[in-house]
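Thread: Newbie trying to understand structure tokens

Hi all, I'm a second-year student working on a class project, and my supervisor (Dr. K.) asked me to get a predicted structure for one chain before our next meeting. I've only ever worked with sequences, so writing a 3D structure as a token string is new to me. If someone could post the tokens and maybe explain what I'm looking at, I'd be very grateful. Here's the chain:
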Amino acid sequence: MIQTIFHLRSIDNKDWATIVFVLALVLIAMTKYIFENRFKEFSKLIFSDKYIKIYKDTSSLMSWFNVILFVVQLISFAFFIQIVLAHFGIVSKTDGIIFIRIITLLGVFILSKFTIEKIIATAFNIEEFEELINFYKVSYRSYIAVCILPINLILFYNDNTSQFINYAFMGIVISLNLFTYLISLKNYQNLLFSKMFYFILYLCTLEIAPYYFLYYWITKS
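---
Reply by user tm_fold:
Sure, no problem. This is what the structure looks like when written as tokens:
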């Protein structure tokens, strides 16, 4: 008697990623179409701070321009994180469930951090300082997210990239984020020096501690 044994065949399904990538590109195109002049200045952000000077009012942070690009930011950085984790063999880069978990955790982390910053800023009467810093971070992170989206796309669909390219990509993203912090410190140094105690408190409690606890939680999990 012949016994039939069925084996599960693993098939990498990338259709979900294609849909998400297309969604991100549609959101960018829509933002460019609706906010043509603003997007034009935004695209020059790496070369000029004109965009920051024009749109740094308090109402600009919660505008539809930033809200739409925030969604793009979540998508782009979630892909980046999943590609990095896949590079180290922790997850599969084609696992859609993992992507949903990453983008949910990322969204909750950023929004929770933003809410806590608002509460602390109100408690210490440093709303202006907090809004300027947040607007600066949101603007540059959205810019970085838009820039690395095509690179995410290439690395996701190419299974034969060298380790050098992967590490170079990680280094570029980390360097760009550090660069934005240094630029923000330079541009707002007068404001920072006048509120040095609050800046140190902000730096320790809201910029260092959350990422440390997140790293600790992920490594222990």
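A couple of things are worth pointing out once you decode it. The radius of gyration is 20 Å. The first helix runs from residue 15 to 34. Feel free to ask follow-ups in this thread.
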